[in-house]
Amino acid sequence: MGVYKEGKNWKVQVYYKDWQGNRKRKQKRGFRTKGEAKEWERDFLQQQTQSVEIEFGNFLELYYKDMEVRLRENTMYTKRYIIDLKIKPYFEHKVLSEITVADIRNWQNELLKQNYSETYLKTINCQLGAIFNYAVRYYNLKDNPCRKAGSIGKSKGEPKDFWMQDEFETFLETVDDKPEAKMAFQFLYWTGMRIGELLALTYNDINLEEKTVSVNKSYQRLKGKDVITRPKTPKSIRVITLPDFLVEEFQEYCSHLYGIMKHERLFRFTKSYMEHCMVNGIEKSGVKRIRLHDLR
User: Fold this and answer.
1) Distance between CA atoms of 11 and 25, rounded to whole angstroms?
2) Helices 118-139, 73-82: inter-axial angle, 10-degree rounding
3) Residues 126, 265: Cα–Cα separation, whole Å
4) How much of the chain is in helix, strand and coil states, percent to nearest 5?
5) What stretches pass through the bilayer (predicted)?
């Protein structure tokens, strides 16, 4: 077991026991220096232990490996994004069991210096708390220092703004030349769907006879790929009644579509495109500025 020279590079060979107690061998080649090889060996062996005497960054890999098979892909993507950007850089090389309440408070103070919303601060803080709760529950960490450090941020943000019908109709005129976006904005405004739910809709989800839309999935663009997942919560699966005028407009809209497949997405663009259309439309129309989410 150890680090060996192999041609111009270095390799690592280690023996370890898996979670069932079976003895395993692991090899890794291609390290340019002995130092890189030894660092990889140390990190790998740390990750095989059930001890909290492990660097925070290495523990994160164990946490991610467990969570990624239990969470929706978009949920896991968001979790990793927040942790890797806002938490990992600060704690990465600290030993997990040695992170103190003071360390947490100092990290929180750094976040408070940033111009983050109260809800975003709360979200970041909760992600760190979840990591320590996981360590307490499954790796016998004595306690969660986040609990003693206290929380930051708020669960609920400021009351969201909204458009009255006349404001929405004024805005809608700015996307007359974009029929697909115009139809999408009308669905958002009159049905209360989330943007991901809207972008996942197929023609099969619309029942023109019953005048309903079935919400049963969600869309996101992750790592350059289209990803369809189940809705945010079980209660999100629902059937929404459409107003008569929206059914008529949708029928008119579909009459101009050619070769539409019933299983394909109705609105084949992304949230970013909708946000871009909204920002431009607000500037052109002069209506008050709101977020895409506020159309719900």
Assistant:
1) 13
2) 100
3) 34
4) 50, 15, 30
5) none
Q: What is the pTM of this model?
A: 0.62
* Angstrom distance (rounded) from CA 196 to CA 215: 10
Helices (H), the chain: 34-48, 56-67, 73-82, 88-91, 101-112, 118-139, 145-149, 165-172, 179-191, 195-200, 244-254, 271-285
For the chain, the first-to-last Cα distance in angstroms comes to 59
Provide the sign of the torsion angle of the four alpha carbons 184, 193, 273, 207, taken in this order: negative
Which string of DSSP letters, residue by residue, matches 163-179?
--HHHHHHHHGGGTT-H
Tens of pLDDT, residues 35-82? 888 887 777 776 666 667 889 999 999 999 999 988 888 889 899 999
Domains and CATH numbers, the chain: 2-48 (no CATH), 60-149 (1.10.150.130), 165-295 (1.10.443.10)
Contact 43, 93 (CB under 8 A): no
